Amino acid sequence: MKELLERLEDRFTVTESDVERDNLAFITLPSKEVVQAATHLRDIEGFGHLVMISAVDYIERGIFQLTYILHNYDKHSDIGVRTEIDRRNPVMDSIHHLWAAARVYQQELREMFGIDFPGSPRVDEPMILEGWDNIPPMRKDFDTKKYAEETYFPREGRVTYDPARAMEEKNYPLEARVKKRIQKLLREGKDED
Amino acid sequence: MTEERNMNEEFEMDELFCTERPKPVPPPTRKIIRDFYNWAQANSLFILAYGTGCGGIELRPLFTARYDISRFKILPRPTPRQAGLFIISGYLAVKSLKRVIRSYEQMQNPKFVIALGSCTVNGGMYWDSYNTINRLDYYLPVDVYVTGCMPRPESLIAGFDKLKELIMAGKAEGANRYAEKFDWYKANQKKIIKDWDMPEYNW
Question: Which residues of B touch A147 (CB under 8 A)?
Answer without folding.
Answer: 130
